[in-house]
Amino acid sequence: MRRVRDDPKALAIVLPSLARRAGRAELARGRIRIGEAEIERGAWRTCDVAGHRLIEACAIAHADLDDSVLHELFLHGDFEERVIVLRHVSLLPIQSVTIALLGEVQRTNTAAWFEALVCDNDLLARAVASGRLPRDDAYKILLKGAFVDLRLHRFYGIEHHASAELTRFVTGLATEREAAGRAVWVDTNRLVAHAPIEGSVDRVLRGLEDSRAEYRHASVDGLAVLLATHGDARLNAAARGAFERESDPGLRVRLSELI
Amino acid sequence: MRIFEPHAHMFSRVTDDYERMALSGIRVVLEPAFWLGQNRTSVGTFIDYFDTLLGWERFRSEQNGIWHLSTMGLNPREANDDRVNDAVLEVLPRYLEKDGVVGVGEIGLDDQTAKEEKFFLAQLELARVHDLPVLVHTPHRDKKRGFERCIDLIRDAGFPMERVLLDHGNEETIRVTRDLGCVSGFSIYPNTKMDPPRMVRLIQEYGVEGIVINGACDWGVSDPLSVPKTVLRLEGAGIGDDDIERLVWRNPIDFFAQSGRIDEAALLQRPRQDRSETFDGNSMLRGQDPATA
């Protein structure tokens, strides 16, 4: 801690050994708020916390610490260093390094880096709300998450920034997968209901009859959103029909609340 | 026989070499940072090279069933080059803290110039600060005097001899190094430096204590299977399995374990050769099915 307070360049020397020295044990689960950010504590490891504390201490001691330092630490970091830097950035207010690193993780195929920055936290939603990340860029990031089957609930609050454009993105992925006979992103119907376009309601209603419970769960959640925003007789009838057919106890409870 | 190959420049070798090495019993390769056949003109190319050793090269090695470790350093040839020498010294500390970096090297002398000595001493100090052993390249020309000069510099710097591996030795230098407390390395080459029959005679005379052997394979006429071929010669000469294992496994592990970054139990297991895995999205496959590649 003293080293990085004295000299910000020491960060580049201290970070590489953090995983080795602080360990990789996961923290206890629990959703918490730190400053502006909301995160899942269980996604963090002891070395991530140590890294965050070190970078924070350095930034406090050197008010003029440039954003580019974090970007450089990422660019020349090994696997673990990159995770540590990204986790740290996920806690910060949205700034230029956030946008730069969102671009980096959008281009990477390393799941751990992508997840460290935009999953199990509200960073993507905050970035959109700040106006510094163009919505289309945020949608591409979310689409990448959908492409590799990361669940929607890991991108806290992003559904509140849904739009017809995002629905087009996600629906496009779904129809392409369906044409190829491949599994569709399970959260498709959960998300498209927030900003339905032509065909979205039919998609959600079809999903209520899916043989797989997790897809029906997503469709029921989608139906709930549609009822709250576009309630009509057809949707009410669909909810009643689904309730009568449904055998999953949890889903029956959920549907009974919608009728 | 399990083999720890303590000096191989795999960056310069093809993937088939990894496969042949794995089949020959090599479980671990240690890749020292070195000269690339021509001088680099900016520090950026060193940074990219160091990152490659720790990144793609490690991945490529493990995909072929061999653990990959490194030493990092400014080689003596380019220590003479003012376009890069100071800048490389500046970036080295961060690399000396990376996982899998178990020493400083190759450092030492080549042309035996004042600049080489300056950067050799500076890197001995880095090794002290980062608590790492050193892999010392010794000159190919005027070797005996170069060995002696390296030893003098190490002594004058007060660097502990047990943390020094003096590499590229021969029948002359073993007489100088055997009682120093350092480890003596021998690079076994097809035609030069040291060959398997000479190495057998040397082991018969001096034993295996404080000795390691390597292939030092690179982009030149060299052999990544030098160590397993020498093992065969040693067996044929009646050297016992325990001594051979000490020479090609225990000795290099004991030396580099001084870094505190070697987990021998992990090295005894083969790396997971999952061909569906990627490094930053890139795989070893070229459109092949991971199940059959």
Strand content of chain B: 5-15%
Using the alpha-carbon principal axes, give the shape of chain B: globular
Structural class of chain A: mainly alpha
Number of helices of chain A: 16
Tell me what the structure shows.
- The complex is a heterodimer of chains A (259) and B (293).
- Chain A is mostly helical and 259 residues long.
- In chain A, 63% of the residues lie in helices and 3% in strands.
- Chain A folds into 2 domains: 1-132, no CATH class; 162-259.
- Chain A is built from 16 helices and 2 strands.
- In chain A, strand 1 (31-34) and strand 2 form a beta hairpin.
- Chain A starts with a helix and ends with a helix.
- Chain B has 12 helices and 8 strands.
- Chain B has helices spanning 15-23, 43-54, 56-63, 76-79, 85-96, 114-129, 143-157, 173-177, 196-206, 226-236, 241-256, 264-268; strands spanning 3-5, 26-32, 67-72, 101-108, 134-137, 164-166, 183-187, 211-214.
- Chain B is globular, with a radius of gyration of 18 Å.
- The chains are: A mainly alpha (259), B alpha/beta (293).
- Chain A binds chain B through residues 12-17, 19-20, 76, 78, 80, 108-110, and chain B through 47, 51, 54-55, 93-95, 97-99, 261, 278, 280-282.
Please specify the SSE layout and strand pairing.
The complex is a heterodimer of chains A (259) and B (293).
Chain A (H helix, E strand, L loop, with lengths): L1 H5 L4 H4 L3 H5 L8 E4 L2 E4 L5 H16 L5 H9 L3 H13 L4 H12 L3 H8 L4 H8 L4 H13 L16 H17 L7 H5 L7 H8 L5 H18 L2 H13 L3 H10 L1
Antiparallel strand pairs in A: 1-2
Helix pairs in contact in A: 4-6, 5-6, 5-7, 6-8, 7-8, 7-10, 9-10, 10-11, 13-14, 14-16, 15-16
Chain B lengths: L2 E3 L9 H9 L2 E7 L10 H12 L1 H8 L3 E6 L3 H4 L5 H12 L4 E8 L5 H16 L4 E4 L5 H15 L6 E3 L6 H5 L5 E5 L8 H11 L4 E4 L11 H11 L4 H16 L7 H5 L25
Parallel strand pairs in B: 1-2, 2-3, 3-4, 4-5, 5-6, 6-7, 7-8
Helix pairs in contact in B: 2-3, 2-5, 5-6, 6-7, 9-10
